[in-house]
Amino acid sequence: MTETASVLVVDDDPGLLTLLRVVLKTEGFVVHAFQESRAALAFLHDHAPGVIVLDLRMPEMDGREFFREARKLGVTAPVVIASAYGASEACAELGAEAAIPKPFDPSTITSVVRSLLEN
Amino acid sequence: MAVEELDPSATIAPESQTPAKDPRRILLEAIRDYAIFMVDLDGNIVLWTPGAERITGYANDEVLGTPFARFFPEIDRRAGKPERILETARVEGRYEEEGWRVRKDGSRFWARGILTAIRDENGHLTGFAKVTHDMTERKLAEEALHQSEERFRLLVESVRDYAIFMLSAEGRIISWNLGAQKIKGYSAEEILGHHFSIFYPLEDLERGKPALELEIAVAEGKYEEEGWRLRKDGSRFWAAVVITPIRDPNGNLIGFAKVTRDMTDRRRAREQLLATQQQARDLSLSIAAKDEFLGIVAHELRTPLAVLYGSAQMLRNRMDLLDEDDRNDLINGLAEETERMRALVENLLALARPVAEDSLNLVDTPVESAVQSAVATFLRSGTQCPVRVSEPGATGLVARIEPTYFERVVANLLENASKYAGDDRPIDIVITPAGARVCIEVQDRGPGVDPAELHLIFESFYRSTRTATNKPGKGLGLAVCKRLVELMNGVIEASPRVGGGLVFRILLPAGGSEQ
Fold first, then answer.
1. From the CA of A60, how many Å to the nearest CA of chain B?
2. Do B302 and A84 touch (CB under 8 A)?
3. Alpha-carbon distance A7 to A17, whole Å?
4. What does the pLDDT look like over B295-308, one tens digit per residue?
5. Model confidence over A85-107: pLDDT tens digits?
6. DSSP bridge partners of B496
C-alpha cells in the first residue's frame, strides 16, 4: 500500500535526522527517520514512502548504494539527495529527482518534498 | 805535456807536411775539441792550434801577437778580468773557471778553461798555456732545464686556488705554495718541516688517518678523498685531496705530492641547494595537506551548521506549530551541535597554534589529579559514560607536562572512546610507572580499529572503515592528541584491547628528572 504523504529520511547524523524529522512532521508529513541505511532498506521491504530524503556519506552502506538497492527492490518513490558535498553531482549520476545541499533552509526541503509528492 | 819545449814562433798549420814532426805537435794539432793556445807574460797569444781556430773562428795569423782578452765579453774586459786571471795563474800556478767567451763572429760560447803558468828550467815564468773546452751545448741544456724547472716552480708557487706541496716520505712538509698559504693559513716559514697531520681534525688523528692515507697512496699509486681539514686558526674547511707518491728513477719512495682544494663553498652551496629543494618539496606537500585539511574542516563544520541553521529557523518561524517534544528535540540539537562545533574549533586551535619549544610550560605535575581534571571536563559535556581511574603500580606519579595540553589529550581520548563505544560502556584509565617515564592507558570497549589501520588513526580526519561517518566530530581529536603529546616529549600509540576495543598508551617523561 502506498503512503502518499509519508517521507523516509535516511541520515547517519543524529542532529540532522532530528531536524529533518521535525521539519517534515511540522508540515504534516508522516516521517520515518533512520540513522542506519540498512535498517531503512529493510523498512522499504514492506513500506512504500511517497518521497525519500537521502544522505550520501554513511557508514556500512552509503547513499549511492542505498539508492541502487532501493531501485532494485522496485522502489519508485522520488529521491532527494541531501548532502553537504556533491549533492547535485550524485543526483545527476544516480538519476535521482532532486538535490539539496546542506546546510539548507527548512522551507526549501518542505517545498521540494511537497512538489515531488504532488507530481 | 811539456809545452814549454815547443817552438813558440812556429806556425802549427793543419796541412803541415813536415815528415819529422814532433809527436807532441801532432797531438796538439789533432785535438779539435779543445782550444789550446799559449800567451806570453802580457797576455798576448804566442801559439795557436787548429782546435783553437775551430772553436773561436780566428785563424792563426789573425790572433798571433794579439791579447787573449779579445775572447772575453766586453763587460769582463772592462772589469779587468783577463788581467786578474793572469795574475791568479801567476800567483797560484793555475786558474780554472767557466764563463762566456766571444767568437770571431761575435757569438758567445760557454768555456771551461784552465790557465797554467809555464816556467823554464830556472823556474822563471815564461808564459801561460790555456786549454779551453766549449761547453755551450751542455750549458744551454742546463739552462733550459733550469728555466723549465724555474717556470714550473713559479707556476706551482703562483697557483692560488690549489694548495700544492710536497711531503717527505715520512710525511713532513718540504715545499709550500701560495695556494697552500691561502687555503691553510700557514706561511712557508711556519709550516715547512711540520708533519702534514697538523691539517687533520682530532677524530681523524685518533683513527690514524694521515698515515693510512700515505699507505694507501703508496699501495695504490694515489689517494683521493673529500674530507674536513683544519686551517691554522682551527676552523674547518671541506677539502678535495689527492696524494701521489713520488719515486726516484730506481723506484724508491722519496716523498709525496699533495694537492688540496678548498671545496667548502661548493659543499655549502650544494647543501643549500639540497636543503632548498627539500624545503620546496616540504612546502608543496604541506600546502597540499593544508588545502585538504581546510576542505575537510569546512565539510566537518557544515553538518553541525546545517542543524543549527535549520533548528533556529524552525524555532523562529514555526514555533506555534511545534509540540513540546519537537521543541525539546530542536533545542537539544542546538546544544549538542554547538558543543560539537566548540570541540572541533578547540582542536583546530590546538593544531594550528604554533608552539615554540622554549615557550612550552613543562612542569612536574601529579598525573592522577591531571587525569581527574580531564575526566571532570569530559563529564561536563553531559555524558553518562562511566570513567574509572586507577594507579595500580605506584601512587603519586609525577610527569613533566604542560597541564592544559595533557588534559586536552585525555579529554579527547575520552570523547573518542565514548563516541565510538557508546555512553554506557566504561572507560578505564590506568596510570603506571615505566622507567624514566609515566604510562597512561585509556582503554575503551568500542568497536576497535582494524590492526592494519592502527598507524593511520592519528592522521587528521582519518576515517576508520569500522567507525566511518556515523559519529559526529570525526578525525581531528587523535591528531591533536599526537601533536600535543609529542610537544611534551612523549609518545602515543594505539593497540587492540584484549576483549575488544582500543588501548591508547601515552608515555611521558617522569617528573623530577633532569631537563
1. 8
2. yes
3. 12
4. 767 777 888 888 99
5. 788 898 999 999 999 988 888 89
6. B502
As a whole number of angstroms, the distance between CA B59 and CA B52 comes to 9
SS3 for B398?
A: strand
> Could you report the per-residue pLDDT of B212-260, keeping only the tens digit for each?
999 999 999 999 999 999 999 999 999 999 999 999 888 899 999 999 9
- Looking at chain B, the whole-number percentage of residues with pLDDT higher than 90 is 51
A11 Cβ neighbours under 8 A, 6+ residues apart: A17, A20, A33, A35, A53, A54, A55, A58, A82
Query: What are the tens digits of pLDDT across the range B374-393?
Result: 898 888 777 788 899 998 87
CA distance B371 to B386: 14
Tell me phi and psi for residue B141, to 5 degrees: -65, -45
Nearest to B390 by CA among B441, B356, B346: B441
- A77, A90 Cβ separation under 8 angstroms: no
What is the amino acid identity at position B207?
Answer: R
Cβ–Cβ contact A15 with B under 8 A: yes
Residues A62 and A44: beta-carbon distance below 8 Å: no
B320 interfaces chain A, CB cutoff of 8 Å:
no
The rounded distance, in Å, linking the Cα atoms of B436 and B506 is: 13
CB A49 within 8 A of CB A5: no
Instruction: Name the most confidently modeled range: B63-72, B332-341, B347-356.
Output: B63-72
Half-sphere exposure of B408 (CA within 13 A, CB side): 26
Which residues of chain B neighbour A25 with C-beta distances below 8 Å? 326
Identify the sign of the CA torsion A13, A18, A24, A28: positive
What would the DSSP string read from start to end of B73-115? -HHHHHTTHHHHHHHHHHHHSEEEEEEEEE-TTS-EEEEEEEE
Residues B500, B506, B507, B512: is their CA dihedral positive or negative?
Answer: negative
The number of beta carbons lying within 10 Å of the beta carbon of residue B227 is: 15
Record the cell numbers describing residue A96, joined without a space. 535521482
Residue type, B382: G
Picking from B409, B365, B368, B364, the residue whose alpha carbon sits closest to that of residue B391 is: B368
pLDDT tens across B399-430, in order? 999 888 898 899 889 988 888 877 788 999 99
Three-class secondary structure of residue B222 per DSSP: coil
- β-pairing, B398-401 with B363-366? antiparallel
Of A16, A26, A85, which has the smallest distance from its Cβ to B307's Cβ? Answer: A16
ipTM of the complex, rounded to two decimals: 0.88
Contacts of B191 (CB under 8 A, 6+ apart): B173, B176, B180, B184, B198
B356 CB near a chain A CB, below 8 Å?
no
Residue A54: φ, ψ to 5°: -125, 130
- The answer to whether residue A103 neighbours chain B at the CB level (below 8 Å) is yes
- Cell numbers at B249, concatenated: 728513477
d(CA B242, CA A96): 77
Would you call B413 exposed, middle or buried from its count of C-beta atoms within 10 A (0-12, 13-18, 19+)? Answer: buried
